[in-house]
């Protein structure tokens, strides 16, 4: 059984990794090490993988928690592994 403190610490570490990834992503765009404009999503996802950005996916976390019921609008009937990985980079690609 996981304690409340362990759970909170895990969530805070996940948030820290996510924010560090976002900061690195933005710095790379500003320094022109990474160009995101006029690129297809597949190419961007491949580049993010190559640059070792972490994947954060709500669908993946739900599956790990044992939640297998599809939610409204999640496209559960049409997903594949590539799309699931691509969705894991929405926290970067959705930054305005």
Could you walk me through the main structural features you see in this protein, from its secondary elements to its overall organization?
The radius of gyration is 15 Å and the shape is elongated. With 96 residues, it is mostly helical. It has one domain: Topoisomerase, domain 3. The chain starts with a helix and ends with a helix. It has five helices and no strands. The protein has helices spanning 4-30, 41-50, 58-64, 81-87, 90-93. The longest helix has 27 residues, at 4-30.
Please write out the topology.
Layout: H1 4-30, H2 41-50, H3 58-64, H4 81-87, H5 90-93
Provide a quick synopsis of the model.
The protein has 96 residues and is mainly α.
Using only C-alpha atoms, the radius of gyration works out to 15 Å
Q: What percentage of the residues does DSSP assign to strands (E)?
A: under 5%
Report the major sheet: none
Number of domains: 1
> Shape from CA axes?
elongated
Global mean pLDDT: 81
CATH topology: Topoisomerase, domain 3
Classify the helix fraction into a percent range. Answer: 55-70%
Number of strands: 0
By helix and strand content, what is the structural category?
Answer: mainly alpha
Q: Which regions contain 5 or more consecutive residues with pLDDT less than 50? A: 71-79
CATH class, named Mainly Alpha
Which second-level CATH architecture applies? Orthogonal Bundle
Order of helices and strands: HHHHH
Could you give the distance between the termini? 39 Å
Helix tally equals 5
């Amino acid at each position: 059984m996981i304690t409340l403190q362990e759970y909170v610490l895990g969530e805070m570490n996940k948030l820290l990794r996510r924010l560090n990834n976002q900061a690195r992503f933005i710095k790379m765009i500003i320094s022109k090490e990474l160009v995101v404009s006029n690129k297809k999503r597949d190419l961007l996802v491949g580049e993010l993988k190559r640059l070792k950005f972490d994947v954060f996916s709500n669908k993946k976390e739900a599956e790990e928690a044992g939640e297998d019921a599809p939610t409204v609008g999640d496209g559960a009937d049409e997903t594949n592994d590539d799309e699931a990985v691509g969705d894991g980079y929405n926290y970067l690609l959705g930054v305005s």
